[in-house]
Design brief:
It is a single chain. The protein is mainly α and 336 residues long. It has one domain. The chain contains 11 helices and 2 strands; from the N terminus they run ααααααββααααα. The longest helix has 32 residues.
Length: 336
């Protein structure tokens, strides 16, 4: 299978040299599209409150799919590329946990009924895939043309790590201050009433946006903010568009299930934020040192360090929770 991704000389190229054929991109996008259609049209065809058991099963399925794709990358692109893929997957998955908790705050702010939350998050994930696709290609092109951007991205990641360490974790969401949401509400006539899972409804003969459209706008805006950390972090691991996008795609596809599983569990992972800060600082430093040719860390060593940081952060959090007693109450309301 590696012959499909070989360079013109017939030898398997490195992950940064490989040109992925157009049919591979088409096949991958088609596969992602099929998964999304199955999810929204079959698994979640009707609106319902997703139980913890259901969320756990779905999350396990999405994680299995994401991890299994490592084998596809290994067969098609080789071992180093597979290491870059799984490293990117772990980074995006871990950084996305904070996004999940912000979603919980957004849903609480707008008092979105739990039965309707899946559909708006579906469109939020779809939008995130499109935005990430564009951002990844732009980011790789910029790094290839302007190598000094490695220092900018690396410094930005180290700065983000410092910001996370200083943050007390009490995140607040103020949608009323969101400029995109204010613009949408000025342009699009809206109603304060929900109409099932619909983004638009008709009242007195007028087509109006429901509050779910406002929720979607804020969700997409929050993803843009989190992408400023995750995209540079993955660019520090790999500069191959297919590896970056596929690892991003599989990591965020499972976020909806992870959201319904972890929505009330933020306080159980007290040291996760410090762990994420350590990961950002590590990949930022790695990016700068590699560009200066001072120190190089192999893909597999990087993967081991990232996995170890996550494991220690989760273990320390669970151990502290066990000593301190029961977890906190859930964040979300069940009804508007």
């Amino acid at each position: 299978m590696t012959m499909f991704f070989a360079n013109s000389g017939g030898q398997a190229a490195s992950s940064t040299q490989l040109g992925i054929p157009l049919w591979v991109w088409i096949a991958f996008v088609a596969f992602i599209s099929v998964l999304l259609v199955i999810d929204v049209k079959l698994v979640h065809r009707t609106a319902h409150v997703i139980t913890t058991k259901e969320a756990a099963i779905e999350s396990a399925i999405w994680i299995t799919i994401g991890l299994s794709f490592t084998g596809v990358i290994f067969l098609g692109l080789g071992g180093p590329a597979a290491g870059e893929y799984i490293s990117g997957y772990l980074i995006e998955k871990s950084l996305s946990v904070d996004n999940v908790f912000v979603w919980a705050l957004i849903m609480s702010y707008f008092a979105v009924p739990r039965a309707y939350q899946f559909r708006v998050l579906f469109w939020g994930i779809f939008g995130a895939l499109v935005l990430r696709f564009s951002a990844i290609f732009v980011g790789v092109e910029l790094l290839e043309r302007f190598h000094w951007l490695f220092f900018i991205f690396g410094g930005f990641l180290i700065g983000s790590a410092i910001r996370l360490l200083k943050d007390d974790g009490d995140a607040e969401v103020h949608p009323e201050n969101n400029p995109v949401l204010r613009l949408v509400r000025k342009v699009v006539p809206s109603t304060a009433r929900y109409d099932g899972q619909k983004l638009f409804t008709v009242q007195n003969g007028k087509r109006l946006a429901t509050p779910l459209l406002a929720v979607l706008v804020v969700v997409e805006s929050s993803d843009l903010v989190f992408a400023t950390d995750s995209i540079p972090a993955i660019l520090a691991i790999s500069q191959h568009q297919f590896i970056i996008f596929s690892s991003n795609a599989f990591a965020i596809l499972g976020l909806r299930a992870l959201y319904f599983l972890f929505e009330d569990m933020r306080d159980r992972f007290e040291y996760l934020q410090q762990g994420l800060a350590a990961i950002l600082a590590f990949v930022g430093s790695k990016m700068i040192l590699a560009e200066l040719n001072l120190f190089h860390i192999s893909t597999y060593h990087s993967l081991g360090i990232i996995a170890a940081i996550l494991a220690v952060a989760i273990w320390a959090s669970l151990r502290k929770n066990k000593r301190n007693g029961s977890p906190q109450e859930p964040i979300l309301a069940d009804a508007p």
